[in-house]
Design a protein that fits this description.
Layout lengths: L1 E5 L4 E5 L9 E3 L5 E6 L7 E4 L9 E3 L3 E5 L5 E4 L7 E3 L21 E2 L1 E6 L5
Antiparallel strand pairs: 1-2, 1-11, 2-4, 3-6, 4-5, 7-8, 8-9, 9-10
Amino acid sequence: MTLINSKDGYIFGGYAQMAWSSGNSYIRDPKAFVFTLKNPHSIPPTRFLVKSGYESYALYAYASYGPTFGNGPDILVPDRSNLVKGTFKFGSTYADTTGRGSATFTGSSSFEIGEILVYQLFG
């Protein structure tokens, strides 16, 4: 589970059932989703599922990126996220049920990370 608090106070993130790796590849995860908890549009907490047929692009694993969701990528957390803005191309892999596209989470197609939390469950 990845939880992001942008510097402008918006809260969003994603969930992945599959483990991340550092290979340069997509990871199939039909249970993955991204979500918004607080956004500039007053959209209530909402979960966005992987589009049918796009399950193989749910996650992107690359050693120079942080958590990356989708083939757009829908949400990209860059390496050195304290210096480099993250980006959105939301609606590429995950179903945009709001019609707001890349502006859904922060009102923009990029974001500055205030805080990021990544949780892993061990079973």
